[in-house]
Amino acid sequence: MCLAIPGKIVSLHENVGLKMAKVEFGGITREACLSYLPDAQLGDYVLVHVGFAISKVDEEEAAQTYRYLAELDQLGELEDGESDRPEREHGYEVP
Amino acid sequence: MKYLDEYRDGRLAKVIAEEIQRTATKPWVLMEVCGGQTHSIVRYGLDHLLPPEVELVHGPGCPVCVTSLEMIDRAHAIARRPDVIFCSFGDMLRVPGSNGDLFKIRAEGGSVRVVYSPLDCLKLARASPDKKVVFFAIGFETTAPANAMSVWQARQEGLTNFSVLVSHVLVPPAIRGILQSTGNRVQAFLGPGHVCAISGWTEYEPIVDQYQVPIVITGFEPIDILQGVLMSVR
Questions:
Q1: Cα separations in angstroms, A47 against A5, A56, B13, B220
Q2: Can you give the pTM of this predicted structure?
Q3: N or C: which end of chain A has fewer CB within 10 A?
Q4: What is the pLDDT of residue B160?
């Protein structure tokens, strides 16, 4: 129960007066209450804990943090003297 | 999945671990506060990836583990009542009280139900008006609002057969307790990301100032945790 899982809102509905959503977690879809995140929209990524969306995943921040961490990788390559690895973006090789 | 796969990138994890090794010039004892972080560390073997200078100590942030025996015994006494449907998160079922656990009570005929969300209890309350539905409302700052919403919603609907046994706990006093203990070895904390999604981080700033320890609010994916370790040792 202590986990909060990030998932994508795939549909919106109402249940007994509460704003609800279907949220997809890598293939599994569950219902989540949006009462604490009333601005969440279809397609948003949200953290869900015990059936409640508690926070939106800030796409820009997630991408920026990843870019910053990926820079470590490039620094490591320079130190290792390796230059023939393909460039990578968001963890995947860029052709 | 977007923003999930990237934060589980094994190659990047290795690079950050190497950076931690370069940065950690003295032995460090770090505590990850949340049970969810501990779960990730063990699941992905992050403790084996870190240099020997960095020791991770598992923290108190598991609401199941820190629920008092007295509260568990109360829950069991309620769950044994024939007029009660007792609802709990699944993690609590194996936790022993003075006389067995909730599984034992269920085996003896008690009506014990596992719920995914506190709102599930309301479905049971609507469907069973002749029973008292009692929810064991445990949790830290992350879970308390969800538990509270079930109470608010029950009132909105006029459900009179729903009640909660409340056992909520807070993280900052637990961190202070650890830092004040005479045998404390912890030099930095990976703070609880989900708790701070609810309550923010301002409660942690006075602790950093008073005890001069780094607290890095950290997520739960492997790359999040390694980044938290790196920021701590920096």
A1: 5, 6, 22, 11
A2: 0.83
A3: C
A4: 96
